[in-house]
Amino acid sequence: MALRGGIDLGGTKIQSAIVAEDGSVLASDRRETPTVGGPADVTAALAASLRAAAEAARVDPRELAGVGVGSPGEVDETRGTVTSARNLPDWEGEFPVGDVLSQDLGVPVRLGNDVQMATEAEFHLGGARDEDSLLGVFWGTGVGGGLILDGKPWLGRGAAGEIGHVVVKKGGARCPCGRRGCMEAYAGRGAMEARARKRQASGESTQLFKIMQDRGRTRLTSGVWARALRRSDPLALDLIDDAIEALGAGIASAVNLLDVPTVIIGGGLGLRLGEPYVDRIRTAMLPHLFVDWSPPRVLVATLGDLGGAQGAALQIDAG
Amino acid sequence: MALRGGIDLGGTKIQSAIVAEDGSVLASDRRETPTVGGPADVTAALAASLRAAAEAARVDPRELAGVGVGSPGEVDETRGTVTSARNLPDWEGEFPVGDVLSQDLGVPVRLGNDVQMATEAEFHLGGARDEDSLLGVFWGTGVGGGLILDGKPWLGRGAAGEIGHVVVKKGGARCPCGRRGCMEAYAGRGAMEARARKRQASGESTQLFKIMQDRGRTRLTSGVWARALRRSDPLALDLIDDAIEALGAGIASAVNLLDVPTVIIGGGLGLRLGEPYVDRIRTAMLPHLFVDWSPPRVLVATLGDLGGAQGAALQIDAG
């Protein structure tokens, strides 16, 4: 029985999993993404993480059928390269992650888009495994999207799924991508943090940055947001209201266009805030849904944090 | 060689075509949609129109391989029924268009969604015939959309393609559908007319309604809008600016999600205003396109007004 390896490369953490034939996780590793160095250092950290997971599963990496990697940035699946992964250190140009990792680990390596990997994991192993079609929405620092239509990943010309940059308010707020009125301009954790800093600077009181410091963070992580919301911090509540309203409008727009039966909400904020907030997204979608008598199912990603690594492993043919 | 018939049932007009094996139109008929009566009267008008087209092509309708119909409202393709076609007279309930028409004409009849038929015509016979995927945008009284993905119509659970109800401004203008901020609330000819009436009533000067009366119309048709724009009517210019901005944001959102290579702009306003305005839509999309270095082709529907009838005929298997 062939085991497969999967690695999810994120802006803040690397997660690896050794996956059995049925898709279940035998062992995993989680570590921080290097913040200094460059693509070679990040790729070395990918290898180290996969080795640690393999060791925990008591398997030699060379015995794996292969290792799949889900990566941000521009992924060239055929050539095994990643270009301009902006959240990773000094990663502007192209780097041959596939070749370097394959030589290091002694197994075949396949690359894919991180969000698409997580979507495929939910489709094959998670909450949408009985469905034909799926929209995955990954609500974290940015808002990523993945599509499965009629059982197959829909990539368009290679860049499909950018639901974070669906316009929800023309002439609206500036998005980290530079455009105006994108869903991510209201719902992305990065944009929310920038707005929180600005509003605090102009005199609004909030516990967000105090909680951040108390927890030894330098960013408003999903955990910081969750704690501030539990304490009913007015600024946190207000910014989350805006985020939910934007997610409701943007996801409903996608459903009006594609009429998919299921939407999965994952990502750092989606997973941390969970069902009560996914229920609010459901409610925020309703006024915008054209077929409002038959809304899609909207579910929290069931595989949680390891979904990306599991999905990456699914890229490897274990037959 | 088997000929096929196609009928496009619209809110204002019925168009029929007799279509050769290569998809070309041998003869056609165009008449007004009955404004009184009910579904049976409209269906009788469909039969009369198809008969007139057949006569012009010197063919007995019974010799056709079949007749396809593109209809608004809720179309049940399997049962051949149309329900709640709101722009048609007294058409709330379900009516068996397929059976009635088939008995009347003595040929098999197949029903489909009007916008999807027009999209398929452009895909198979028109401007997108060399493409795998296509978004059709039909800019008329409302704004309809049709999708072809990887060579096949994408219908979702049956209601996909509602690009007119993609949200472009949350909390924005009221749409004829009752929701807020839909693209159609700014770009649909129905919504634009309502806004023009309101702004004229509150004192803005415009020639729109004068042109309408001079041309013997009771509605602001696409021709009325075109003439007012040629005369640089300020209110018409302003409302068209809003429409183009909304179309730019909404179509760009769809492209960010689906990354299709081609967008076709048809519909009454799209065809009447043509390339200069489609070029403005292209420009309005750019600031919202995530992959702005590789925008899709955006083309005026090449089949013009008869595309819907041609697409409807394609539903019939002529083999």
What does this structure look like?
The structure is a homodimer of 319-residue chains. Chain A has helices at residues 39-56, 97-105, 114-124, 184-187, 189-201, 208-214, 222-230, 234-258, 267-285, 307-314, and strands at 4-9, 13-19, 25-32, 67-71, 74-76, 81-83, 94-95, 109-113, 134-139, 143-149, 152-153, 262-266, 297-300. With 319 residues, the first copy, chain A, is of the alpha/beta class. Chain A has 2 domains: 4-119 and 306-314, Nucleotidyltransferase, domain 5 (2-Layer Sandwich); 129-301, ATPase, nucleotide binding domain (Nucleotidyltransferase, domain 5, 2-Layer Sandwich). In chain A, 55% of the residues are buried.
Blueprint (SSEs and pairs):
The structure is a homodimer of 319-residue chains.
Chain A: E1 4-9, E2 13-19, E3 25-32, H1 39-56, E4 67-71, E5 74-76, E6 81-83, E7 94-95, H2 97-105, E8 109-113, H3 114-124, E9 134-139, E10 143-149, E11 152-153, H4 184-187, H5 189-201, H6 208-214, H7 222-230, H8 234-258, E12 262-266, H9 267-285, E13 297-300, H10 307-314
Parallel strand pairs in A: 1-4, 4-8, 9-12, 12-13
Antiparallel strand pairs in A: 1-2, 2-3, 5-6, 6-7, 9-10, 10-11
Helix pairs in contact in A: 1-2, 3-10, 5-8, 6-7, 7-9, 8-9
Report the sheet with the most strands of chain A, covering strand number, pairing sense and barrel closure. Answer: 5 strands, mixed
* Strand line-up across the major sheet of chain A: 3-2-1-4-8
CATH superfamily of the largest domain in chain A: ATPase, nucleotide binding domain
The whole-angstrom Rg of chain A is: 19 Å
Determine the CATH topology of the largest domain in chain A.
Nucleotidyltransferase, domain 5
* DSSP summary, beta strand count of chain A: 13
Count up the helices of chain A: 10
Structural class of chain A: alpha/beta
Most extensive interface between two protein chains, with residue counts: A-B, 45 and 45 residues
Low-confidence stretches of chain A: none
Q: Please tell me what the overall shape of chain A is.
A: globular
Average per-residue pLDDT of chain A, rounded, comes to 95
End-to-end Cα distance of chain A, whole Å, is 9 Å
- Beta-strand fraction estimate of chain A: 15-25%
> Helix content range of the residues of chain A, please?
25-40%
H-E string of chain A: EEEHEEEEHEHEEEHHHHHEHEH
By oligomeric state, this entry counts as homodimer
What is the level-2 CATH architecture name of the largest domain in chain A?
2-Layer Sandwich
Could you name the CATH class of the largest domain in chain A?
Alpha Beta
Instruction: Give the number of domains of chain A.
Output: 2
